[in-house]
């Protein structure tokens, strides 16, 4: 007994010492350190300070705001690497890197009335958009919503080469240069999001709550996101944290008349010393949308809620961020029918309905990621663990779900960056995911069998910059294993791909020239390999092929930009050759099952070519005027010179913005006019309907209201002329259901507290 007491006493002392050590360690971690960096932002021509210039730290994802004299200070920075973007209205942005904190830095910005570079974070290193070697376009949501749009994808459609494949206003799928679905990846803050995107009626998995900007990588040009991205990547970046040692509480509300929609969001952000926290909550509710005829699209109502959180912390050379988001949607399915020859009148109603009806989808998404970055003198290490869960239930006329699937995805990324010298750096990494698709055994039907997917990839890139020149060369190896969990059918197979990317650019004050060539790889999905049944979303009976080969793409992208103080011109042609392109090939017109035509999933070689032209004019004699225009055109064909199906219409998009210098308790600051011309689409595939040309006009206004709180407002009209039209890639086109008619909207944004 005495020995036992002595032994227990030793254990007590040992544990006590370790607890004391742990407490001291935690205290030392959370006390942090208070090194800072400061300086002044000056106008390069006048030498005067630029009032209220913005300073943003890439590593910490927050920043500071200069005072009226251009002076600023950013506290609690990290060791070894500090990357700052300095920006101000009517000036060119500048990106600067420092080793350790520095004091009294003088930064000069060049006046520029047109070009305002955004930072690109979707590639492996942060650069201003003009200096990238990949075809990537970055736009702030506020910029895309000069005239407010109904959905995030509607806003993205203002970008050249990006379209919306919609099912009413509840389901949206991004289309990049004619490709969508599994050929377009969605990434949020570096986390790859999976949501059964193979389905034509499975929409975009991201709500615009707390989103700051979107970057679109066009084509298979980014090696760091792995396979599947033949069309490109939609990279969604959340809002920055609150500025250093600041707190922000903000609320906004929006109302739309067309669907009697209400959208309400609330956010809380604070940064204190080394700790940064952000919370967001949002809810929306829409009734059936109104057609230009005055009737309503039956069962097009939808509603949903989302909660998002982010916690960031830094200490010495370490930065960590943890993010979690839950999204819950209920989406009505207009145009959904099991009839062999549905009547258009069954999809239209004279009464607008907000009450939940069937058929409908109920979707619950969980998104979680933990990212850690370690900065050393010449090295940077990034680790990321991620988890996404997509629960999809589809109800017909009963309370038992017809479809009930749960897709869970565990992902990881390890990336190392080494600075070889002042001009060269190498980026290498590994990335993978373990994905599981499971059906509820009580569901009435199974669209995709239970299966496991295992991805493993390795990549390495060499990057360099020499004065005005930038280049990047890299390669990547990917392997995907697919294994069904049911014995009927039993399937197990591995697919492998080796890809490359090479890009070079030269960017001066006036000219930017870029050439990029890259390859891509997409293994066939289980829905293509083992399909054998009715798919109501496409009104087809699909028969798959277990012997499908991976799709392999090769893209050449060329870019020329001319940048002047008062205008900017961009020319961006491309060609994308895809071997083993997967498509649905119709059988004889008389072959049907359950009244639906039979389609075999087959492969061919396909070529997609086209480009974007963009123009931005801000005249010297009329600084209150901005005119932006972009033209997107696309041509596609298979190996037999036949057009590919569901290719969007060529489009000319124009926005005229007038800035007003009004003062008063209620002031109107901007008025915007948008004119979009969609050209006719008569280059169609077999069993596809052509589309007529149409034009849309939208108007938007914005201003502010003087009060103890900062209040901004916007109001406007979408589809001003109440035009009757059906977009060529609308999933409701086969049923003759028009897109929404005229829509009035009003939005208020209130800064409740900022200190």
Please, could you describe this protein's structure?
It is a single chain. By secondary structure, this protein is mostly beta strands. It folds into two domains: 39-128, Carboxypeptidase-like, regulatory domain (Immunoglobulin-like), CATH 2.60.40; 136-754, Beta Barrel (Maltoporin, Chain A). It has four helices and 43 strands. The protein has a 22-stranded antiparallel beta barrel. It has a five-stranded mixed beta sheet with strand order 10-15-16-13-14. 43% of the residues are buried.
Question: Nearest-angstrom radius of gyration?
Answer: 27 Å
Shape: globular
Q: Considering DSSP H and I runs of 4 or more, what fraction of the residues is helical?
A: under 10%
* Name of the CATH first level of the largest domain: Mainly Beta
Kindly report the CATH topology of the largest domain.
Answer: Maltoporin, Chain A
- Gap from first CA to last CA: 63 Å
- Mean pLDDT over the full residue set: 89
What's the helix count? 4
Q: How much of the polypeptide forms β-strand, as a percent range?
A: over 45%
**From the helix content, strand content and strand pairing, which structural class follows?**
mainly beta
- Summarize the biggest pleated sheet: 22 strands, antiparallel, barrel
Q: How many β-strand stretches? A: 43
- Name the CATH homologous superfamily of the largest domain: TonB-dependent receptor, beta-barrel domain
Which CATH-level-2 architecture of the largest domain? Beta Barrel
Domain count, please report it: 2
Q: Runs with pLDDT <50, length 5+?
A: 1-33
């Amino acid at each position: 007994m005495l020995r036992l007491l002595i032994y227990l006493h030793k254990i007590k002392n040992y544990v006590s010492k370790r607890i004391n050590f742990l407490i001291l360690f935690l205290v030392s971690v959370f006390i942090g350190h208070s090194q800072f960096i400061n300086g002044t932002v000056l106008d390069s021509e006048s030498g005067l300070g630029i009032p209220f210039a913005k300073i943003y730290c890439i590593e910490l994802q927050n920043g500071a705001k200069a005072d009226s004299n251009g002076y600023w200070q950013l506290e609690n920075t990290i060791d070894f690497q500090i990357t700052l973007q300095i920006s101000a209205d009517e000036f060119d942005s500048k990106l600067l890197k420092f080793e350790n904190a520095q004091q009294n830095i003088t930064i000069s910005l060049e006046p520029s009335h047109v070009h305002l570079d955004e930072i690109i974070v979707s590639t492996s290193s942060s650069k201003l958009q003009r200096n990238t070697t990949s075809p990537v376009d970055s736009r702030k949501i506020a910029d895309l919503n000069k005239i407010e749009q109904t959905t995030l994808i509607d806003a993205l459609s203002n970008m050249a080469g990006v379209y919306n494949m919609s099912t009413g206003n509840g389901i949206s799928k991004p289309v990049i240069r004619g490709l969508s679905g599994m050929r377009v990846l969605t990434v949020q803050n570096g986390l790859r999001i999976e949501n059964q995107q193979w389905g034509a009626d499975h929409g975009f998995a991201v709500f615009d709550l707390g989103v700051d900007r979107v970057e679109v990588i066009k084509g298979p040009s980014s090696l760091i996101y792995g396979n599947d991205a033949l069309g490109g990547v939609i990279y969604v970046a959340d809002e920055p944290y609150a500025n250093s040692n600041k707190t922000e509480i903000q609320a906004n509300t929006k109302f739309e008349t067309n669907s009697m929609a209400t959208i309400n969001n609330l956010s809380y952000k604070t940064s204190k010393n080394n700790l940064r926290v952000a919370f967001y909550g949002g809810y929306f509710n829409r009734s059936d949308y109104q057609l230009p005829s005055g009737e309503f699209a039956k069962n097009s109502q939808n509603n949903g809620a989302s909660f998002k959180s982010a916690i960031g912390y830094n200490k010495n050379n370490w930065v960590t961020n943890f993010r979690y988001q839950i999204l819950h949607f209920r989406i009505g399915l207009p145009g959904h029918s099991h009839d062999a020859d549905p009547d258009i009148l069954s999809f239209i109603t004279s009464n607008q309905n907000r009450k939940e009806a069937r058929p409908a989808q109920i979707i619950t998404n969980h998104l979680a990621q933990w990212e850690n970055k370690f900065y050393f003198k010449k090295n940077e290490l990034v680790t990321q663990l991620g988890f996404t869960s997509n629960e999809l239930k589809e109800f017909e006329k009963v309370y038992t779900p017809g479809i009930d699937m749960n897709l869970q995805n565990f992902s990881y990324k390890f990336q190392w960056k080494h600075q070889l010298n002042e001009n060269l750096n190498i980026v290498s990494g590994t990335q993978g995911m373990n994905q599981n698709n499971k059906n509820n055994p009580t569901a009435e039907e199974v669209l995709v069998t239970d299966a496991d997917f295992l991805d493993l990839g390795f990549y390495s890139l060499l990057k360099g910059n020499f004065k005005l020149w930038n280049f990047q060369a890299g390669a990547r190896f990917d392997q995907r294993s697919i294994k069904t969990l049911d014995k009927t059918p039993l399937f197990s197979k591995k697919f492998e791909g080796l890809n490359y990317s090479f890009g070079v650019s030269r960017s001066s004050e006036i000219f930017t020239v870029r050439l990029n060539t890259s390859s891509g790889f997409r293994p066939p999905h289980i829905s293509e390999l083992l399909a054998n049944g009715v798919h109501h979303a496409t009104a087809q009976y699909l028969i798959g092929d277990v012997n499908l080969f991976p799709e392999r793409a090769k893209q050449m992208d060329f870019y020329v930009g001319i940048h002047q103080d008062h205008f900017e011109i961009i020319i961006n042609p491309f060609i994308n050759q895809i071997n083993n392109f997967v498509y649905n090939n119709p059988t004889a017109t008389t072959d049907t099952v359950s009244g639906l035509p039979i389609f075999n999933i087959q492969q061919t070689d396909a070529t997609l070519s086209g480009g974007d032209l963009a123009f931005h004019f801000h005249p010297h004699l009329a600084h209150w005027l901005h005119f932006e225009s972009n033209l997107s055109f696309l041509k596609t064909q298979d190996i037999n010179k036949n057009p590919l199906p569901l290719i969007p219409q060529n489009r000319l998009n124009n926005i005229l913005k007038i800035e007003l210098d009004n003062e008063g308790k209620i002031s109107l600051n901007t008025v915007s006019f948008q004119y979009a011309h969609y050209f006719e689409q008569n280059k169609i595939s077999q069993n596809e309907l052509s589309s007529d040309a149409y034009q849309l006009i939208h108007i938007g206004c914005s201003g502010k209201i003087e009060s103890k709180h900062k209040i901004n407002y916007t109001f406007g009209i979408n589809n001003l002329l109440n035009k009757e039209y059906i977009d060529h890639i609308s999933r409701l086109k086969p049923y003759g259901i028009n897109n929404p008619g005229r829509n009035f909207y009003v939005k208020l944004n209130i800064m409740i507290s900022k200190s």
